[in-house]
Amino acid sequence: MTDLSLPPTYSEYTSVDPAPSAPVDTEERLEARLMDTSMPMFERMKAIFTLRNLGTDRAVDAIGRALIEDRSALMRHEAAYVLGQVQSPHAIPVLERALFGDTHVMVRHEAAEALGNIMDDRVLPLLERGLVDPDEEVVESCEVAIDNQRYLRSKRFEAFAAE
Ligand SMILES: [Fe+2]
């Protein structure tokens, strides 16, 4: 039964998104909508925010597909951004591909920031490798992300020590 106390676009994220999320649907249908370049960008972004809200590995795979395959750098950047919000280690391989393979500085910047949000031992070496990116914005993003990793680790240590 549907929980009517929640609006269909309920999100645990407090960000003000550039588009509302689409009604909850299957990951497959949301992925199809996200990848449908005949749809307005607004509709495609609604799908990406719903996938983010679902946060399952299948949803992360769908967002990761947009991050790698989409022709629009704006959409690839948005995909990296929401993967940073989801904070799933499942997204690490695809964010690595974007950080070291995307041609657009905005996408590499966002991939670095997203990796910085994910607590996983694989992240720090990737960010250190990113410090030699030809674009200063990406280098700076890696520096911020490395500091964020240290901050998150100290918070986790504090929580652990307080137990
Ligand atoms: Fe950003």
CATH C-level: Mainly Alpha
Low-confidence stretches: 1-8
Instruction: Label the overall shape.
Output: globular
What hetero molecules are in the model?
fe (ii) ion
Number of strands: 0
What is the CATH fold-level name?
A: Leucine-rich Repeat Variant
Number of helices: 8
Order of helices and strands: HHHHHHHH
Mean pLDDT, rounded to whole units?
91
The second-level CATH architecture is Alpha Horseshoe
Under CATH, the homologous superfamily reads: Leucine-rich Repeat Variant
| Whole-number count of domains | 1
What does this structure look like?
- There is one protein chain.
- The longest helix has 27 residues, at 136-162.
- The chain is globular.
- It has helices spanning 27-35, 41-54, 57-69, 73-86, 92-101, 105-116, 123-129, 136-162.
- The protein has one domain (27-162): Leucine-rich Repeat Variant, CATH 1.25.10.10.
- Helix content is 65%, strand content 0%.
- With 163 residues, it is mostly helical.
- α2 runs parallel beside α4 (73-86), α6 packs parallel to α8 and α7 packs antiparallel against α8.
- Bound molecules: fe (ii) ion.
Concise description?
This protein is an all-alpha fold and 163 residues long. The chain contains 8 helices and no strands.
List the helices and strands and how they pair.
Elements: H1 27-35, H2 41-54, H3 57-69, H4 73-86, H5 92-101, H6 105-116, H7 123-129, H8 136-162
The protein binds fe (ii) ion (FE2).
The site of fe (ii) ion has 3 residues, from helix 6.
